[in-house]
Amino acid sequence: MSDRIFGLIIAVVALAFFASATQLEQPFFADPLGPKAFPYLISVVAFIAASMMIFSPDKESNWPNFKTLIRISVAVIILILYANSLKPLGFLFSTAVAAGALSYQIRPRSIESVAIGVGLSVVLFIIFKYGLGLGLFAFPRWL
Amino acid sequence: MDLFSNLALGFSVALTPTCLGLAVVGCILGTMIGALPGLGPSNGVAILIPLSFSLELDAIQALVLMTSVYYGAMYGGRISSILLNIPGDEPAMMTTLDGYPMAKQGRAGDALVLSGVASFVGALLATVGLMILAPILARVAFLFGPAEYFALYMLAFCTLGGIGSNNQAKAAIAVCLGLGISMIGVDNSTGLTRFTGGNLHLFDGVNFLVAIVGLFAVTEVFVFIESHGKETAIGVKLKKVTIPIKDIIYTRWSMLRGTLIGFIAGLLPGAGASLGSFLAYTFEKGVAKDKSKFGKGDVRGLVAPEAGNNAAAGGALVPMLTLGVPGSGTTAVLLALLMTLNITPGPLLFSERPEVVWGLIASLLIANVVLLILNVPMVKVFSRILQVPPSILLPAVTMISFVGIFSLSGSHFDLLLMIGFGILGYILRKVDIPAVPVILGILLGEHMEVSLRRAMVLSDGDWSYLIESPISLGLWLAAIVGFIAPIFLRGFFKKPPQPVA
Fold first, then answer.
1. Scanning every residue of chain A, which has its alpha carbon at the shortest distance from the alpha carbon of B432?
2. Is residue A138 part of a domain?
3. Does residue A44 sit within a domain?
């Protein structure tokens, strides 16, 4: 089933890619092939391969249970928040929170996770800032 | 002798204190990365590339550092295979078959030393092979026009997809995904922007380092959260380490056979180290008179794949340096490094910047000696690394990847894109679509399109030009065989089962 669904998604993406390529302007001074031909080729091959996935799928893939999917989704949310907070909130605070939260996802011991978060944040900051000379901000800039 | 004057040039570049220091640091980091389960060579090299830029190294120094990491990771992969029965990276999988049983019999130290020596033999001879073969292939590569290059890219995708996946349709999808992503951004020959959806961040295209770190490192985070709790690694304790001279002498031919097979497997564009170690093991078992001990701790079954995978690592550098076509996931990452350093691999690299090529080769020779010292007398130190709990290791790796990518551009868009690639990588893993062809597609897409378009300019739109020259015809035939043959060989080459812990 997963194979069929994924094949269907790829087939739709391939069609969308093809459609998007038809919209490209053909410039006046283009080479014989132009900017469209190679994208066309890719989408055709992808479409054929996706159809093969839909019509002859492999055996069902091994998806994790609901609880694990939730844990992975939480990890994704942590990473997205981290990506957005790295600049405004500074390295030390956002890294401590994100690293601690990730560590909690793997081994749910609260005190241990806090310690790992803070420890990693400080150690990595020293390595990045003074070892590699990256221009990181330790604290939010408004402080 | 050309070879010796070139080597002298190489050593004159590589023997500076900075380069030597970088080689040692790279070897240590690489061995650690290789030893940690789940953090393989491609992964490790990928997350370190952005950070190595911040050190403001010149091209040769950056190359020395990263190839030392690469070789180091190939060595280190065996440590967790032997002690934990968990391959430290994919090529080290075959090492678990006889390595772990040996360790359970109380011969963990012997197994580590023996496989370290096998790695050294494999990697050293492969580097010598690289020295001899690469200049010859570079001369052949001068004959390549756009049609030949297009055929060569087809060959790389076909063999990589055919061998690396269990389903040709899925391999093709992986390649198309990568090529499709590489089309995003400004088309260099017309100045037109394509497939950006009007997003300014995408005008320069998708940075391949973002894609690589996402597909390798971030995906690994999700896989790890999932697998956690299922695999509890109870390792074998490492006692006194001595050098088993008798076994080294006994297995000398196994090492050499493994090296030769691995090197050839590495040369094939797109095949790489996993295939090298697999073929080396299968062959060794095939030629052995007494097969009864294979899988139960036979020393020959330990050294052959270990020599094979390290030889393949050297072999894979040949097509990468001479043709710009990587032979494995990790060499794809190294190609990304070269491209970011503005070094174009190919025949011109050998004639115009010999100091880069030969400096690299000399530093590989140096790295091998360093690695032998690190991996034989000091192997006990590295085996300690396996005790770092995943609840520290995984957040650390994640944060390093984020800071690395952030330091490249300072944009949070790249970070979000990287997370997106991480999710994509996880889904791909679940539906059993290989990620390496996606990366190769992103790296080579632009070159592939340019060669096709140049070929069409030369032939004025006549498609038969693509198969006109004997070289390109041969490459096309090899591509077709490489894609189709694995379907028939799959039943023949059944992967042997992993030993039960």
1. A61
2. no
3. yes
**How distant is the Cα of A142 from the closest Cα of chain B, in angstroms?**
18
Report yes or no on A51 lying in a domain.
yes
B194: three-class secondary structure by DSSP:
strand
Distance CA B168, CA A52 (A): 9
Q: Please tell me if residue A106 touches chain B, with a CB cutoff of 8 Å.
A: yes
pLDDT at residue A68 above 90?
no
What residue ranges do the domains of chain B occupy?
A: 2-489
Tokens of B286: 């095939």
B381: number of CA atoms within 13 Å, CB side?
10
Candidates A6, A40, A91, A109, partner chain B, best to mutate (most B CBs within 10 A) = A6
Kindly indicate the confidence band of residue B501, based on its pLDDT and cuts at 50, 70 and 90: very low
**Could you list the residue range(s) of the whole structural domain that residue A89 is in?**
66-131
Identify the CA nearest to B394 among candidates A139, A113, A134.
A113
Task: Check whether residue A51 and residue A71 sit in a common domain.
Answer: no
Q: Which residues of B touch A44 (CB under 8 A)?
A: none
Count how many pairs of residues, chain A against chain B, have C-beta atoms within 8 Å. 187
Q: How close, in Å, is residue A56 to chain B by CA atoms?
A: 10
Interface test with B, best of A17, A28, A38 (most B CBs within 10 A): A38
Residues of A in contact with B449 (CB under 8 A): 38
Which among B407, B448, B457 is the nearest to A32, CB-wise? B457
Contacts 24+ apart (CB under 8 A), B363-366: B363/B10, B363/B14, B363/B19, B363/B23, B363/B63, B363/B64, B363/B67, B363/B68, B364/B67, B364/B71, B364/B123, B364/B127, B364/B130, B364/B314, B364/B317, B365/B124, B365/B127, B366/B14, B366/B15, B366/B20, B366/B23
Are B54 and A134 in contact (CB < 8 Å)? yes
Selected residue of B399, B433, B446 to mutate for chain A interface (largest A Cβ count, 10 A): B399
User: B59-80: per-residue pLDDT in tens?
Assistant: 888 888 998 998 898 888 888 8
Q: Closest by alpha carbon to B30, among B320, B318, B363, B324?
A: B363
The tokens describing A79, both together, are 């990473």
Residue type, B52: S
| Residue A102 near chain B (CB below 8 Å) | yes
- Looking at the structure of chain A, the number of domains it has is 2
Query: For B294-344, how does the pLDDT look when each residue is reduced to its tens digit (9 = 90+)?
Result: 888 888 989 999 999 889 988 989 989 998 888 777 888 889 888 888 888
Assigned domain for A32 exists: yes
- The reported pTM is 0.89
A72 and A39 share one domain:
no
Whether residues A49 and A95 fall in one domain? no
Whether A73 and chain B come into contact, CB under 8 Å, resolves to no
Indicate the average pLDDT of chain B: 86
Helix, strand, coil proportions of chain B in percent (round to 5)? 75, 0, 25
The first and second tokens of residue A12, run together, are: 């739709």
Same domain, A39 and A16: yes
- Residue contact B419–A107, C-beta within 8 A: no
